[in-house]
Amino acid sequence: MIIQLDKKISEKEREQIKLMVKDIGYKTTRVKTQIGEYLIGIGKREFDIRQVGSLPGISDIHRVSDDYKLVSRKWKVNRTVIDLGDGVLIGNGTLTIMAGPCSIETEKQIEESIKHLVENNVRIMRGGVFKPRSSPYAFRGLGSEGLKLWAMMARSAGIKIISEVMQVSQIAEMYDEVDVFQVGARNTQNFNLLDELGRIDKPVMIKRGISGTLEELLSSAEYVFSGGNEKLILCERGIRTYEKASRNTMDVNAIPILKEKTHLPVIADPSHGIGLREFVEPIALASIMAGADGIIYETHQSPERAYSDAQQTLDFMESERLINRSRKVFDVRESF
Amino acid sequence: MIIQLDKKISEKEREQIKLMVKDIGYKTTRVKTQIGEYLIGIGKREFDIRQVGSLPGISDIHRVSDDYKLVSRKWKVNRTVIDLGDGVLIGNGTLTIMAGPCSIETEKQIEESIKHLVENNVRIMRGGVFKPRSSPYAFRGLGSEGLKLWAMMARSAGIKIISEVMQVSQIAEMYDEVDVFQVGARNTQNFNLLDELGRIDKPVMIKRGISGTLEELLSSAEYVFSGGNEKLILCERGIRTYEKASRNTMDVNAIPILKEKTHLPVIADPSHGIGLREFVEPIALASIMAGADGIIYETHQSPERAYSDAQQTLDFMESERLINRSRKVFDVRESF
Amino acid sequence: MIIQLDKKISEKEREQIKLMVKDIGYKTTRVKTQIGEYLIGIGKREFDIRQVGSLPGISDIHRVSDDYKLVSRKWKVNRTVIDLGDGVLIGNGTLTIMAGPCSIETEKQIEESIKHLVENNVRIMRGGVFKPRSSPYAFRGLGSEGLKLWAMMARSAGIKIISEVMQVSQIAEMYDEVDVFQVGARNTQNFNLLDELGRIDKPVMIKRGISGTLEELLSSAEYVFSGGNEKLILCERGIRTYEKASRNTMDVNAIPILKEKTHLPVIADPSHGIGLREFVEPIALASIMAGADGIIYETHQSPERAYSDAQQTLDFMESERLINRSRKVFDVRESF
Amino acid sequence: MIIQLDKKISEKEREQIKLMVKDIGYKTTRVKTQIGEYLIGIGKREFDIRQVGSLPGISDIHRVSDDYKLVSRKWKVNRTVIDLGDGVLIGNGTLTIMAGPCSIETEKQIEESIKHLVENNVRIMRGGVFKPRSSPYAFRGLGSEGLKLWAMMARSAGIKIISEVMQVSQIAEMYDEVDVFQVGARNTQNFNLLDELGRIDKPVMIKRGISGTLEELLSSAEYVFSGGNEKLILCERGIRTYEKASRNTMDVNAIPILKEKTHLPVIADPSHGIGLREFVEPIALASIMAGADGIIYETHQSPERAYSDAQQTLDFMESERLINRSRKVFDVRESF
C-alpha cells in the first residue's frame, strides 16, 4: 500500500497513520523525495482501505500488489517527465536522443561529437569516463579529468551529459558535471550504489542487468525512488541468450511491457542491444515503433579508431540518418 | 561451392564437372529444383575457382563459406519472391499479411474470419488443423475434414491458406488444399519432414526452433532447398529465455540479420513472439520497421472463446487497426 | 484424476464410470496399456473422490494435479522397471550402462565395440543408424542395412541395442532389431512420433529437448504412456544456455527433480551434456551421484576417426575406467 | 606473457626488461602480490620468447594465450592453497566445508550454529551481515554490530568466517573480523570492488555472476590478482536459464572446466545452485564427485523461521548427514 501524505501533515497525524497501519499488521517505510512524502506499507493481510484512507493528513492511498510499489503505474497513472533544464525534457511525449562515443577519449573527439550533435539538434551526449571492462588490462577511461573537460565543453554548447557511475565514491566526484547518472548493466543490482543515488537530486538512468528480469529492473528503480529520488529513467539494452549471431538479444518486448507496468520513461539502447553497427538503425527504429521514449546509441567520428565498442559504433553520416529517420518513425507512432 | 549448371548441359559435361570437383577433393551433392540444377561441393582445400568455372555446362560458380549454401545471399543476391498465384506474392517489396485463428474450429468461425480478411484486403489466412499440443489431453485440431471445408470456403473468396504440417504422411493429405506448408517451431529440425518437403512444388514457411539459432534455421531451409524446393520463407517467432513477463522473447535482431544472410523472405510472428494480446500490435509494427517482409498473427471473432492461444489472439477490431497501421509503417520504411 | 480399472470390469460398469465422471464435468480419455486400463479425467471442478471411487469396476483412484498424470509419482509411487529380457533390467536398483559409438560405421567397428562391452560386462549398446544432422550435406547414417548387421552381431553376443528413431515410418523398419527406441532431443515434441510409439510394445527412451523444460519432457512421456505404452525411460542430455565453454549445460539438477516427480527411470548422457571428451567422466560420475539410474555415453576404438561427435567420444581405455568408477560411485550412493 | 621477476631484481634490470617488452610492441602492467612480482605483457605480435627470457632479473617467463593470465593454469600448474591459519587450508587436497545461515540473525542462532559446526568438525562458517536484497523493503542484515558479535563467538570456538562484502567502504569495516571476503553473484563484475580487494591481504571468494560466463569469472579473479592479491577462491552457484523447476541451474560442467583452466580452488554452492532444500544434498555430492574442492551451503536450526532463503536451507540433522556423506564421496573421488 502507498499512502501519499499531505504536504501540510502534522507530526501527530503522521504518527497516527503509522499506528493504524501497524495495527493492521503492515510494516511501514517512510519515503521522502524531492516531490512528496509517502508511507509504504508492506504486508499480506486483507483490510478495508477506507479505514486508513479516512485519516487526516493523507492526500491519497493505493493498494499496489506488485513487489515494486512507487514505480508502479498501478499507483501513478500519469507518466513521469524528467526535466534536465534549458528545455530538455525526457518522457514528455517527444523523442529523446542521446548519442556520443562509448568512451571520452580526447578533446578533439569531444569537440567533433558536440558539433555533430548541435548540427542535428540533439541535446544529450553520452560518453564513458569510468569504463567497466571485463579485463583489468583494458582501457579504463579518462576519469575525473576527462569528465571536467567534457562537461565544460558540453555546457558551453547547450548540451546535457549522461555518464556511467560505477561506485558510491564517484557520485560526489561526478555530481557537478553530469546531468544524468547512468547505472550500467553490471551494476543494476549494486544495491549500495542505488541507495546512495536515492539520496541525491539528479536524474538516474538504470540499465537492465545483463540477464536481469524486468521485475528486477523495476525493483532496482524502487531502491532509488524509496531512497528519495523520483527522477528515474529505465533503459533496455539487450539480454544474454544462446544466440551468437548478435552480441546480445534486444528484448523489444520489454518496451511495451515496461510502459504498461511503470510510469517511468523507457529508453532503448540499440548499440548494445544488437552490437553490430550495420543493424543499429533498424533496431533503433523498431524500438521507437514499439513505444520507447527515446534512444541512446554510440557514434564516433571514425568508429574504426574508437578505443572501445568499435564494431557497434556509427559514424556521423550514419548517425545523422538515424536521427532523421527516428524522428519520422516517432511522428508516425504518435499519429496512431 | 555452388555450381549452377546450364539448362542445356549434356550428361557428359555434367560427369566431367563432377570428376573435376572430385579431383580437387570435394564431395558433391546434385540438387535439382523447380528452377534450376546445381552441384554443391563440400570441402576445405584451397583451389582456383576458374579451374572449374571454365568447364562447359556451367552457367555460374560461387564460393560460399557458410555451412548453408543455397539459401545464402553470398551466392544469390536477388531476393526470392514466392508466387502463390492470383496476384499474391511474398517478398516482392510489398507487405504480406497472414492472419486467422490459432485453430480452425467451426464453419461459422471460418466464414467470419474470411469476411474479416476480405474486408481488409488480406489475401492469406492462417489456421491450424493438426495442432501440436504439449499435453496429449488437449484439443488436437479438426484434421483433414476441417482442412477441406476451410480450403473450399477460402478459395471461393480468393483467399490463400497456410497451415502447419507435422509429419511426412500429412504432406499428401494436405497437398491439394494448402497454398503454403508451415513447419512449426517444434519441427524445425525434423529432418525427415524437411527432406520430404524438398520433394514437392509448394511453398514452405519454416519457423525458427523454440531455442533454435539463426544458423540452424538457415540449415533447415538448406535441407528443403537441397531436396529440390526453392520456394521457402523463414519465420521469426520468439525464442525461449529466462524472462517470464512474456511468453517468448521476440528476437527482433533476427530480422535484419536474416535479411543480410539469406535471399529468402522473412516473416514475423508477433502473436507467439510476445504472447500477450495487448502487446501484439507494437511488436508487429516494430518487426516491420526492422525489415520484415510481412507478419503472421492470430485473430478470432471472440478471442476469449478460442479453443487455443486465447490470451494472444486479437479480436477483429484490433486486427483491423493492426492491418492499417502495419501498412502505414511499411510505407514509411520503404520511403527510407 | 486417474481411475485404474479392474481387470475384470464389465462393459456396463465402464460406461457407468464414464457417465459419472462426465456428470462431474470432466472429460475422459481411455488408456489401455500392456499392463492395465485407465480412465484419465481432465477438469477443474472440485468433487468428492469417494463418489466416483465407490463404483464397481474400479481398482484404484487418484487425484493428480500435474498436467502430466500417468507418469506422475503422485499416482504411482513404485518405480517403473523396464525388462529387456535375458536379465537386463533398467531402473531396478542397479546401475544401467549404455555405451557405443555415435554412429554405426563398419562391421569391424561393431565387432570391436561389442568385444569391449562384453569384456566389461555392459549389456546395452548405443549407436545411430539414422542420424539427425543439422547440415543436409553431412553423413546421415547407414540406415536399415547397418541396423540389421549390428542387431545380428549384438544378439549373438547377448547385447541389447538402443537406437534413435526419427520418424513414424522407421518404427516398423527398426522394430525387429532394436530393444529400446530412442527419441532424440530434436524430436521430443514430435507428437505424431510419440503417438505412434504409444501403440507399440517396446521400451522407449525420450531425451529432453535441446531447450526443453522438465514439464515438457514429462508431457512427452505422457503422450507415449497415454497411447498405451508404459515402458518409458527419460534421459537428461544437457540444455542450451549462453555458456560457450561447454557444448551444452548438463542440468544435473534435473536428475533428482525428475526422480521426485516421476516413477520412470532417469538416464544421464554426459557425452552430450558437456561435449568435451576429457570431462565426460566427472560429469558421468556426478550424474550417478545425483541419483541417475544409469548413463549413456559415446565410445569408439579410435575417437579421432569417428564419423561424428569425435570430440566427445571416449576411447576404450577411458571407457573401461569410467565403467569401473561408475560402479564404485553407484555402490557408495546406494550405501547411503 | 607473464614474466616472473627475481626476488633480488635491481631497478635497472627491471627497467631493461620493460624496455625490451615495449620494443616488441607489448603493453606491460606491473603486478606485485603478497608472494611475488610479475610483469604482464599484453600484445599480439609474434616474438622469440628466449629473447626476453635470457635477460637478468627474470626467474620465469610464460606465454599465456587466454585473456586472463595470472589465474591461468597455463602459467602456474601447481594448485593454489589458501591458508586461513590454525590449520585451516582450502584447496590442499582435502575437502573444505563452509556452512551456516543465509543471514546472521541473533546471538542464540550464532551459538547454535557454531555448536553444530564444532560437533561436526567443520572449520568455516558462512553468514551474511550485509544482505543484497532485490526489494528495498526486505531484511538487509545486522551490519557491523552483528559481524562483531559473530566474529568474537566464532573465534573463541576456533571457527573461521566467510561473509559477503558489497561495497568498497565495507572492506575496512569488515577487515578485522572476516577470514574470507565473499564477492556475491551480483557483484562479480563490480570492478571497483575487485580492484580494492586486490589491495588487501585476505582471501577472497568470487561467486560466478547470475548469468556470468566462466571466462568472465576468471577475468574477475584476474582483477583481484593483478591488483596484488593472490589469495583467491572461485565459486559455482548456478546460472539463470529458462528452466523454472529449480531456482537456478547448477552448472556442474563448470567445476571440471574451471579446474582445468585455473590453479585456483573451486567451491560449489548447492543451496543457490538448485534452491530447493530436499535436493541440496544430491547436488552437493554430485559437485564433489565432479571435482569441487569444497562446498558452501545454508543451514539453520529451524529453517522455516530463517529470515531469508528458508526454502533452500537445511536443518542440522540434514546438514550432519550431508557432511558425513560429503566426506565419504570425497574419499572415493580421491581414491580414483
Strand arrangement in the largest pleated sheet of chain A: 7-8-9-10-11-12-13-14
What's the N-to-C terminus distance of chain A? Answer: 35 Å
Indicate the CATH architecture of the largest domain in chain A: Alpha-Beta Barrel
The main sheet of chain A comes to: 8 strands, parallel, barrel
Average pLDDT, all residues of chain A: 94
Largest two-chain interface: A-B, 41 and 41 residues
Number of domain modules of chain A: 2
CATH class of the largest domain in chain A, named: Alpha Beta
Backbone shape of chain A? elongated
Order of helices and strands of chain A: EHEEHEEEEHEHEHEHEHEHEHHEH
* CATH topology term of the largest domain in chain A: TIM Barrel
Describe this structure in words.
Four copies of one chain form a homotetramer. By secondary structure, chain A is an alpha/beta fold. Chain A has two domains: 2-62, Alpha-Beta Plaits, CATH 3.30.70; 82-335, Aldolase class I (TIM Barrel, Alpha-Beta Barrel), CATH 3.20.20. Helices cover 35% and strands 18% of the residues of chain A. Chain A is built from eleven helices and 14 strands. In chain A, the strands form three sheets. The first copy, chain A, has an eight-stranded parallel β-barrel with strand order 7-8-9-10-11-12-13-14, surrounded by five helices. In chain A, α3 (107-119) links the parallel β7 and β8 (124-126). In chain A, α3 (107-119) runs parallel beside α4 (143-156), α6 (191-197) crosses α7 and α10 (280-289) runs parallel beside α11 (316-335). The relative contact order of chain A is 0.13. The model of chain A has no long low-confidence stretch (mean pLDDT 94). Chains A and D meet through α6 and α7 of A and α6 and α7 of D.
